[in-house]
Design brief:
By secondary structure, the chain is α+β, with helices and mostly antiparallel strands. The chain has helices spanning 2-14, 120-129, 381-404, 412-415, 419-468, 472-487, 491-500, 502-515, 527-546, 551-554, and strands spanning 20-25, 29-31, 36-43, 60-74, 77-90, 95-98, 102-103, 106-107, 111-116, 130-136, 140-142, 146-155, 159-164, 179-194, 197-210, 214-217, 222-229, 232-239, 244-248, 262-263, 265-270, 285-295, 313-317, 321-327, 330-343, 347-351, 354-360, 365-371, 374-378. Helices cover 30% and strands 38% of the residues. The protein is elongated.
């Protein structure tokens, strides 16, 4: 016990009884291109957390920050200290303040530093070594419409890049309030000429979809670089220029109660008119696919097409596919919906025309795209007649049984039966209903497979016709149908496969440019080369599938 008290007393005696904070600058006057070191030292036990130096960012760029802790025990006296060193570069020419900082229970002293300008000649030289160029495709756009932004950083051979902003300089969604950002990525070009000189170029691209009208400020980014100029090394922080964009609200002339869809162009593809509905009978089914492509719009903003069906038809929609595809410096938002229809009675049916309302951001007027419907006839079929005869027979037998029993009520037989008879009868009826349902579902599936097998050869002919068409839009549809038919993939999956293959990617880009009006010059397409590329894609995907072992193939119990 005495030893513990002595040890405790020794430790208490060794702890310093005072603490002190000192602050110093390596220079008190610098030019606007120079750096200065700020040193803050705490003599005493440091706090758990480092000080908050964010107040410096108003007037300085923090190029680096480091800390060092020193602990010693000399002549039974314990000493502790911690030093923070920050390298700062001024953002402007002025008398700048180094604010005070809270460090534990202490506050550092406030300091001043004078920043003087450099000569105009030197400033012009530095500006020619590294600079940003920002291009915006439109400074005015409607809410939810796309705005393409391209930033290019030009830097000479005398410049070495240290850091490009945070996260590589591309803005994140949280960097712009009330806006959605689709990043198109970064890329480094080898060289590009500008102002009579050759520069390396670093490019950033993204598309902004504003979610609120008003003024939207583009998020700025910066690059930290070292410039070797006139036998001296200069640290520079180069920022992008500020850009304010005007976001227009939904116009008053747009119909109320209609989902808002701004776009510079809309293309709708519907296969209802191409389906073979000539031999439909009661119980048959068919599928319809509607694909909406909106230029300068994001896919999730494209509304669903709602169709009112006549009595005697049921619909079973699937989950829509959403995809955003790049077209030059624009975004094509794509929504694809597939819906299965089942006819439950015979007669003539009409799927009505459907209207998609959207706002043309180029012409600033309401557009209406009509999706044509179709009229077809459904026959009763042998299965329906047999079902009708069976039902009539059942009703006749039922009437005879009631007459023989003295018409004691519709449920008289159950009233006179014991409880277990009722249970057995109910169970039998339930099993009979389930079996009828299973048989019906199986018949529906077999019927759908039968129709698919019958129309496959016809579909092959349609694909060949589309690929031979003089219309670039038909060629694109033919490429998509080839892959969806041969590989049983979705249209979105087919687009991704086309974008990966060099031949089809070039063809798809040319077709899109002509289809969406980004160029008036029709692209010459080599149909044989496209077919050869489609076969290559088909073969590669089939080979990948052949070498892929599913869990069910792997796990076969013995």
């Amino acid at each position: 016990m005495v030893k513990k008290l002595v040890a405790t007393a020794f430790l208490v005696a060794s702890i310093p009884i005072f603490a002190e904070v000192t602050v110093s600058l390596s220079q008190t006057e610098i030019s606007e291109i120079e750096r200065v070191s700020l040193t803050i030292r705490l003599e005493g036990i440091p706090p758990r957390d480092d000080p908050d130096f964010s107040a410096l960012e108003d007037d300085f760029d923090i190029l680096s920050q480091m800390s060092e802790t020193d602990q010693r025990l000399v002549n039974n006296q314990y000493t502790s200290s911690k030093t923070w060193t920050l390298v700062l570069k001024p953002k402007k020419v002025a008398e700048l303040k180094i604010p005070s900082f809270a460090i534990g229970n202490f506050t550092s002293e406030e300091l001043s530093i004078k920043v003087v300008p450099i000569s105009e000649e030197l400033a012009e030289k530095l500006d020619q070594e590294v600079f940003w160029v920002t291009t915006v495709d439109r400074k005015e756009q409607y809410v939810h419409g796309g705005i393409h932004v391209e930033r290019k950083l030009y830097y000479s051979n005398n410049v070495s890049l240290v850091r490009i902003g945070r996260r590589g300089g591309l803005p994140a969604p949280q960097d712009v309030e009330d806006a959605h950002i689709v990043n198109l990525g970064n890329q480094n070009d080898d060289w590009a000429p500008r102002n009579g000189r050759s520069y390396r170029v670093y490019t950033q691209e993204f598309v902004i979809f504003a979610e609120k009208s008003g003024t939207l400020s583009l998020p700025q980014t910066s690059v930290t670089a070292n410039i070797d100029l006139d036998n001296r090394s200069v640290a520079a922080v180069v920022r992008t220029e500020p850009h304010d964009l005007t976001i227009l609200p939904r116009p008053e002339e747009y119909p109320s109660g209609i989902p808002w869809l701004p776009a510079s162009n809309v293309v709708i593809t519907d296969d209802l008119g191409e389906l073979d509905l000539s031999d439909l009978v009661v119980g048959d089914s068919f599928s319809r696919r509607i694909t909406i492509e909106a230029l300068d719009s994001i896919s999730t903003g494209i509304p669903e097409i709602e169709v009112e069906l006549p009595q005697g038809m049921r619909s079973y929609p699937t989950t829509p596919n959403f995809n955003n595809e790049r077209l030059g410096n624009k975004i094509i938002g794509t929504r694809s919906d597939e819906q299965a229809f089942v006819v439950t009675q015979a007669g003539e049916f009409t799927i009505p025309d459907t209207e998609l309302v959207w706002w043309n951001t180029n012409t600033k007027q309401v557009e209406r795209s009509i999706i044509p419907g179709r009229t077809f006839v459904v026959g009763a079929g042998s299965a329906a007649n047999a079902s009708g005869n069976s039902n009539n027979s059942g009703r006749s037998n039922s009437r005879q049984i009631q007459g023989a029993s003295g018409l004691e009520g519709s449920d008289g037989i159950f009233q006179r039966s014991p409880f277990w008879v009722i249970v057995l009868a109910s169970t039998a009826i339930a099993l009979w209903v389930v079996s009828i349902g299973v048989v019906g579902v199986r018949a529906w599936i077999l019927n759908r497979r039968r129709k698919r097998d019958i129309t496959t050869s016809d579909e092959d002919v349609k694909v060949e016709t589309l690929l031979k068409s003089n219309s670039s839009r038909d060629v694109k549809e033919g490429m998509l149908r080839w892959l969806t038919l041969k590989l049983e993939v979705s249209r979105v999956g087919a687009i991704l496969l086309l974008q990966k293959h060099p031949t089809t990617a070039t063809a798809l880009r040319g077709v899109n440019d002509h289809q969406y009006g980004t160029t008036s010059k029709a692209t010459k397409l080599d149909r044989n080369e496209i077919k050869r590329a489609l076969r290559e894609i088909e073969r590669e995907v089939q080979q990948q599938r052949a070498h892929t072992t599913t869990f069910w193939q792997f796990y076969q119990p013995t």
